[in-house]
């Protein structure tokens, strides 16, 4: 199968029936609204990205097979590539311009396909929509076809990105046709980007505070340190540890409980933040203010050392392991991440040269340097790839600002 030839009804039935049964066994699915029932392709479905199952969940409730834009790294796995090619998925290099993607999407439109896009470019971490990739607005304007916004409520609480375990509860789906053909034709990309941002804005905990649905499971706080890495009580990074439904700082003993409703309750010391989103928002601002402060240099130098497996992929080949070893970053050498392998191999990665940096799943940090795709795999399950992503992005922004100042 391909973009030109979509899977037939029998093939879709064979593929989706067990998936739909599996999803229904784990969650109570509610369809709030489905405008796609009366629609024919081509049209676009835009959605916020909350679980690994999002493409399959949406495909299960849309009558036409969806041609999703998917991360190009997924196509480097031979077996997964076959499945993606069968469904007509379109490869896209994350956070990099890719003209092949545009050509494939135009082809999908010509063949009356339904085109699925997650404009955040990645799963969000705390149940709140992340900034949208601006090129989505350009693509929407270029295609000039109807646009449907899909909202998955309860998806984040069912399967937080930082967790390994699934939590059983309600998932509510909505497919709302927001714009028809020619509606956005005369809008600028900037105007469309603003409209898309408003249409896709979503905060899971704002929805949950109105509904108070339980999401039951075991070890609810397990691996929360993959996301939250700074304690709000003592403000120390990399001292937080999860155990069953509790989350504790080993430096100051600040402890909270993660509840089935997705909120935080005090265990030791008064509660500071009631939700993970509030805690994460605070830690990202604290990181920006504190990371390069002289008095915090040793703290961050100690925090930014982790064991990884370093891999590389050239062109579209599968990843090849270079070596296991340790990566390190420090404020007094802010522009570079250093790798020392167990085989004594040493490599330096200048942050200014690292393009398209992103997290695949929850433990792979991927980036390009000179068209080679590198991957840091944090194989120790409690390590935070998210910490490395946010530190790297902050330093990259600082380096760009410094470059602009020098050029004036």
Automatic annotation (TrEMBL):
It holds the Pfam family Acyltransferase. Keywords: Acyltransferase, Transferase. SUPFAM superfamilies: Glycerol-3-phosphate (1)-acyltransferase. One of its GO terms (biological process) is phosphatidic acid biosynthetic process. Residues 43-155 form the Phospholipid/glycerol acyltransferase domain. Signal peptide: none annotated. GO terms for molecular function: 1-acylglycerol-3-phosphate O-acyltransferase activity. InterPro entries: Plipid/glycerol_acylTrfase. This is 1-acyl-sn-glycerol-3-phosphate acyltransferase.
């Amino acid at each position: 199968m391909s973009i030109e030839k979509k899977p037939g009804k029998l093939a879709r039935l064979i593929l989706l029936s067990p998936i739909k049964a599996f999803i229904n066994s784990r969650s109570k699915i509610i369809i709030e609204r489905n405008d796609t029932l009366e629609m024919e392709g081509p049209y676009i479905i835009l959605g916020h990205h909350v679980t690994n199952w999002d493409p399959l969940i949406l495909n299960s409730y849309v009558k036409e097979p969806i041609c999703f834009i998917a991360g190009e790294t997924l196509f480097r796995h031979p077996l997964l590539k076959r499945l993606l090619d069968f469904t007509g998925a379109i490869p896209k290099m994350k956070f990099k311009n890719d003209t092949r993607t545009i050509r494939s999407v135009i082809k999908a439109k010509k063949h009356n396909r339904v085109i699925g896009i997650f404009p955040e470019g990645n799963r969000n971490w705390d149940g709140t929509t992340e900034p949208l990739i601006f090129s989505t607005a350009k693509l929407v304007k270029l295609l000039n076809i109807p646009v449907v916004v899909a909202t998955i409520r309860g998806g984040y609480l069912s399967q937080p990105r930082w967790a390994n375990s699934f939590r059983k509860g309600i998932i509510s789906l909505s497919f709302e046709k927001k714009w028809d053909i020619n509606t956005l034709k005369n809008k600028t990309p900037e105007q469309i980007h603003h409209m898309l941002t408003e249409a896709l804005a979503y905060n899971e905990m704002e929805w949950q505070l109105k509904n108070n649905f339980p999401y039951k499971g075991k070890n609810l706080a397990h691996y929360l340190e993959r996301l939250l890495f700074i304690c709000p009580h003592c403000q120390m990074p990399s001292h937080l540890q999860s155990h069953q439904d509790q989350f504790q700082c080993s430096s100051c003993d600040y402890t909270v409980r993660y509840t089935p409703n997705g909120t935080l309750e005090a265990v030791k010391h008064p509660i500071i933040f009631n939700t993970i989103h509030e805690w994460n928002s605070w830690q990202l601002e604290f990181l920006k203010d504190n990371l390069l402060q002289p008095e915090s240099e040793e703290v961050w130098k100690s925090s930014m050392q982790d064991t990884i497996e370093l891999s590389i992929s050239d062109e579209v080949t599968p990843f090849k392991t270079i070596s296991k070893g340790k990566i390190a970053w420090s404020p007094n050498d802010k522009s570079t991440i250093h790798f020392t392998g167990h085989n004594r191999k040493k490599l330096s990665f200048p942050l200014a040269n690292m393009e398209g940096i992103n997290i695949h799943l929850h433990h792979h940090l991927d980036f390009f340097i000179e068209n080679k795709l590198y991957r840091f795999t944090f194989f120790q399950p409690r390590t935070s790839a998210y910490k490395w992503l946010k530190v790297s992005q902050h330093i990259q922004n600082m380096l760009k600002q410094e470059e602009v100042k020098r050029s004036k």
